[in-house]
Amino acid sequence: MGRYVARRLIQLIPVVIGATFLIFSMVFAMPGDPIQRLAGERRPDPARAALLRDQYNLSDPLVVQYTKYMGGLFKGDFGTSFTGRPVSEIFADAWPVTIKLGLTAFVIEIVIGLGLGLLAGLRRGGYADRSILFGTLIVIAIPTFVLGFSLQLIVGVKWQDYFHLPVAGVTDGWPKAYLLPAFVLAGISLAYISRLTRTSLVENLRADYVRTAVAKGLNRRRVVGVHTLRNSLIPVVTFLGVDLGGLMGGAIVTESIFNLPGVGFYIGQSTRASEAPVVVGLVTLLVLIYLFANLVVDLLYAVLDPRIRYD
Amino acid sequence: MTDAPDGQSAGAASSGVLGGGGGGEPGAAKERHGSLAADAWRDLKSSPLFWVSSTLIAVLVVIAAFPGLFTTRDPSFCDLSHSLETPSSKAWFGYDFQGCDLYARTLFGARASILVGVLVTLGTSLLGGFIGAMAGYYGGWVDSVLSRLVDIFFAVPLILAGLVFLSVFPNFGIWGVVAALTIFGWTTAARIMRSSVISTKNVDYVTAARALGAGTGRIIMRHVLPNAIAPVVVVAMISLGIFISVEATLSFLGIGLQPPTISWGIQISDGQRYFLRAPHILLIPSGFLMVTVLSFILLGDAVRDALDPKLR
After folding, report:
1. Backbone angles phi, psi at A80, to 5 degrees
2. Phi, psi of B59 (to 5 degrees)
3. A29, A33, A34, A36 alpha-carbon torsion, rounded to 10°
4. Which of A13, A119, A140 to mutate to test the interface with B (most CBs of B within 10 A)?
5. Do B18 and A134 touch (CB under 8 A)?
6. Least CB–CB distance from B167: residue in A125, A248, A271
7. What is the ipTM score, two decimals?
8. Residue B167 and residue A30: Cβ atoms within 8 Å?
9. How far is residue A186's CA from residue B232's CA, in Å, rounded to a whole number?
10. What is the pLDDT of residues B54-77, one digit of tens each?
11. pLDDT (tens digit, 9 = 90+) per residue, A117-165?
């Protein structure tokens, strides 16, 4: 296990460098002079512009800028917005909202997704199975933002008297305030998880070791709960890691629909205002979190499936 | 979303059940003969799912190519006196806020979505397929380098990457969106191609071809690729739907396609503002978008069914 962890950590290094460089070089290519944009219609004072340019290393070549940026990153400095606010401060303000939203969505998709998948897989071909397969397919085909508006206006506005769920801009009062946006965010992943669980459960129920377990006279509960489920969860756990990326993309959409001032909300806002340092800082942070989470998932994967550790 | 396709096979398994079962055709009783493609085609012909989805796709493609066949109205002709009118016999889908005919606009909007979906799928399959095939076939350090490259691009979530890319290159219309999604969307195809090639390159007929003196190019083109390409094709069809949906999301965020381009994403983003007063403006393009995405996913499912020997 130790060797496996070490190997994964070493593999992570080039990926972190490559991904941050990729984002950084894209924003470096942004057209226009950011200092001029900051000044708006007026001509910026040359001395002041030179100072700012120097402060943000804007006159260095790309690689030097990137190296300086990475140096700052290791000291916890993710850059400053052009208005002088540190990106880490913006992040500190925004992440509680996103974490609450993301975790609520994560719990919803795991509980409901796994539940539906188990139900469908155990009653393969039955009425429940067919309606779950059909329903999840429809959910996958609906883009997140369409689901978001529809639920916001139907559940949040038209059925307000039954559910009393806040519609937009309410960030305190977890979990109630987050239920609706989290459900929207979880929607597509929930559908994938239930389909994935079902497929892998159906496949594993046909496996020889399950037949052996049944032949040994174990009861169904133990056969499914211990023997089948552990093996069926492997693809689901892998999906959960990959899915974090989807959740981050979805958070931009969900947070702007429900007006939640989370990380995604700020990314969307600063992209529209072409505030490059904020976009790079926040996206870089998200990518680092994503890579780290996937490392955790990989380790979890190795715990679930010993074959991974030994190859 | 590497695992998305796996989730899809669930639908595949039940396709017969949903469709009421095609039953055994006379030819099935005989021993199988012919190529994989002929086999797959025989399977596809009896799948109702395949006929439904491919008919829908055919209709949508005709609409996208020749919207003028279905409507004589000009989608950019708007009359404010009709603003927000609901569907009627005069205008089947009603009017939007600017008083433009929604039926005409929805039909003309198909082109942008389907064009983006098809081009991005072609681009990602070619780019990803090539890189994946190289990594899988050569192995060793080539594989290590290319696999890390895949990891790097995979580490940036598609919508985040699209957002950054399109704010850097904002004025390239449909081509900007296609470029953004291709550059950051090829990794799934590469991963699948790689594992598919790895499992194909060591089989006996490849060794035999090599022993007979076939060159690397010939082995890859004639022996490995034809046998490794099926999973990539299936995933391509499913991702086509997903790319269409991502394009709509980017347009909705205000960073993908821009007016005056007519697209479903822009229409939906417009309709959102008047949802309570006139829900049809949002619901009709959303419905078209959903049916398109669904058709491609279902077609991918049906093709997977036909190509997957495990289900036979």
Report:
1. -125, 150
2. -60, -45
3. -170
4. A140
5. yes
6. A271
7. 0.78
8. yes
9. 27
10. 888 888 888 878 777 777 777 777
11. 988 888 887 888 888 888 888 888 888 888 888 888 787 777 777 766 6
